[in-house]
Predict the 3D structure of the following.
Amino acid sequence: MSKHIPVRFGIVGAGAIAQAYAQAFGQSDQVELCAAADSRIEAAEAMAEANDCAAFSSASAMIDEMDLDAAIVCTPPVSHRDICCELLSRGVHVLCEKPLSIDADTAREMIDVAEQNDRVFTMASKFRYVADVTLGKAIVESGLIGEVVMFENVFTGRVDMSQRWNSDPEVSGGGVLIDNGTHSVDITRYFLGGLAEVQVMEGNNIQNLPVEDTVRMFVRSDSGVLGSIDLSWSVSKEQPYFIAIYGSAGTLLIGWQESKYRRTCDSDWNVFGSGYDKLDAFKRQLENFAGAIQGRDSLVVTPADGLASVQVIEAAYRAMQQGAWESIDASEAAASPVA
């Protein structure tokens, strides 16, 4: 089997999520981390020293000096449009951290710029690359648990958000709903297809943040499946499973330490996975993006998926403000293709 030339990457933004990517680069021979850029030059230099790569104070300086194939944008959401459009316009393929954008108009603009410059561009969504999630989707599609009736997702934990940019609406575009909720929407669509309508209720704001810190979201898919999503920065539900799928002939659970399913005719659970492996998920995401650049693979998460997530979250905020179900245009939130 021939060995592929590694795809040369730069990282824009040297915060916590960038550190996870840096670890993943060290696990793969298909990708190479060549540069790090951050407006805080000391952060870029620290990442560069740890990963034997070059450091820059901006994305512009990085692409001026480096011969890069691709970049990962790990900056706050409000900056995504300007950074991604510059990179794409200058011939760099871009993997943009979630959410793709804080609004659908700028998300569309980014996708248009990618198409105009014939660059590979999409939203990063790590849970789609978790092996147990992929296996779980295959089990559901096989019909082992029958027709899907209900879907549940829980992303909750106690995290002090008072000093983090994620809780500054001018930077993040919202609170836990756009932050954790973007992951939730993407994996919900992965299992259920297009979403027809959404309802959101906000819980008590325990941390007194200027944004929501706890919400419960309800969705109905185009095919009529009901879904519930719990999101919080202020409570932990202490559940071992972050996805539960209830079918007419059984149940499937995807967890942090173990994943399993049981049909109604089974006396015991059938374990099919060992849970969430963050490093492996990031590695698989990088390799899928590199494979798409080199024409070997199709993107697992497409630009249309990224746009749909932004549109569903926009509808979710309208629903939360109005206290009513909000319809989602089926043409805008089309079902994700089978990965």
Observations:
- The chain has two domains: 7-126, 127-327.
- Confidence is low (pLDDT under 50) at residues 332-339.
